[in-house]
Specification:
By secondary structure, the chain is an alpha/beta fold. It is built from 14 helices and 11 strands. The chain folds into 2 domains: 167 residues, Bacterial extracellular solute-binding protein, family 7 (D-Maltodextrin-Binding Protein, domain 2, 3-Layer(aba) Sandwich); 153 residues, Periplasmic binding protein-like II (D-Maltodextrin-Binding Protein, domain 2, 3-Layer(aba) Sandwich), CATH 3.40.190. A 6-stranded mixed β-sheet has the order 7-6-8-5-9-11, covered by helices on one side. Helix 12 packs across helix 13.
Length: 367
């Protein structure tokens, strides 16, 4: 008796079962190129965690920006069910949900630590999910970038006059502030920033912080690297789930994917904190890069314009008004603690004569 056909058939069946054994095959679209530091690598880890924790019942395939949908199409793709999961930052969707800009970050606003606390224990998640519910999307806090840099510029900013006509890529409320200061703002996905800056299509750009800025090679396209990142003291990262797909999971799998997404968010800030200082040293070793501080009068103008921008937003959008009220009440409470804890600890842990230049209100310059 020839057993080879039967054996071949069994092996084929086993291979098919291994490949197609998942009960749910999900797609996860990100807003960055494949395997990009923090966001791309974090998405890969999340996908693997879901597959492992579900014991293979859920398979998650990660798509970088442009592989399945473009970066700014992720929200719609999740909403339509083209993908079951997506990654983003809330201000990318301000055209659909103006209030989402407040969920992303507020210039001169909450730090990553404060923002995370507001989302999880100050009513923020409830407002966030209310904002996205009409689109059939269930958002989960997927991390925070921590404080960002002020951006890369191909001209020095010595006064407010230098902002007039400046073409700069910056999203969200920070972009609105720049527009009122006289700049021309555009919103580009990350993958388009370097070529636009190098070609002179834009004069300046924000991105994130040294680790991701170095990954995009922005130091090869601009000379002046400005601080502080007044416009994004802590940038919210989100994991988006198609509500129908999430509801279609058994209770145990639904808990797994949501908890895995929440847990993955803790790695984001730690990853940036661990790698930003190393990347900054690499950037400053480039003799064509100059680290610059925004002049005080420019920062003060940004602060003034921020108040105007936010006031107009909350006057025109009831949901934005509710979010802002909740954030303001929480911020006022937490700031009283931060002043005598984190802020004073940072002052106290370094002797006055050893404090870096910024603690003495002196500009840092690597030149």
């Amino acid at each position: 008796m020839n057993l080879r056909p039967a054996l071949f058939g069994l092996l084929t069946l086993l291979a098919t079962a291994t490949t197609h054994g998942a009960e749910f095959n999900w797609k996860y679209a990100t807003v960055v190129p494949p395997n990009f530091p923090v966001f791309g690598t974090g998405a890969n880890r999340l996908a693997k965690a879901i597959e492992t924790m579900s014991q293979g019942r859920i398979s998650v395939k990660v798509y970088g920006a442009g592989e399945l949908v473009n970066a700014f199409e992720v929200f719609d793709a999740v909403s339509r069910g083209t993908v079951e999961m997506g990654q983003g930052a809330p201000y990318f969707w301000k055209g659909k949900i103006p209030a989402a800009q407040l969920l992303a970050t507020t210039p001169f606003g909450m730090t990553a630590e404060e923002s995370n606390a507001w989302f999880l224990y100050g009513g923020g998640m409830e407002l966030w999910r209310e904002a996205y519910a009409p689109f059939g999307i269930y958002p989960v806090l997927g991390g925070n970038t921590g404080p960002q840099m002020g951006g890369w510029f191909n001209k020095e900013i010595n006064s407010l006059a230098d902002l007039q006509g400046l073409k700069i890529r910056v999203p969200g409320l920070g972009g609105e502030v720049y527009s009122r200061a006289g700049a021309t703002t555009v919103n580009l996905p990350g993958s388009e920033i370097f070529p636009a800056l190098q070609a002179g299509t834009i004069d300046a750009t924000d991105w994130i912080a040294p680790y991701n800025d170095l990954a995009f090679g922005l130091n090869k396209a601009a000379r002046y690297y400005y601080w502080p990142g007044w416009h994004e003291p802590g940038g919210t990262i989100e994991v988006l789930f198609n509500q129908e797909a999430l509801d279609g999971l058994p209770d145990d799998l639904r808990e797994i994917v949501v908890r895995a997404a929440e847990a993955s968010g803790h790695e984001v800030l730690a990853d940036f904190t661990a790698n930003n200082h190393r990347a900054l040293q690499v950037l400053l070793a480039d003799d064509k890069v100059e680290l610059k501080q925004f002049p005080p009068q420019v920062i003060e103008k940004f602060r003034e314009l921020t108040s105007e921008v936010i006031q107009e937003l909350i006057d025109s959008d009831p949901l934005a008004a509710r979010i802002h009220q909740s954030q303001t009440e929480f911020f006022d409470q937490v700031t009283a603690w931060q002043r005598i804890s984190t802020q004073k600890l940072m002052d106290a842990r370094m002797p006055a004569n050893d404090q870096p230049a910024e603690a003495k209100s002196e500009p840092i310059d690597n030149k």
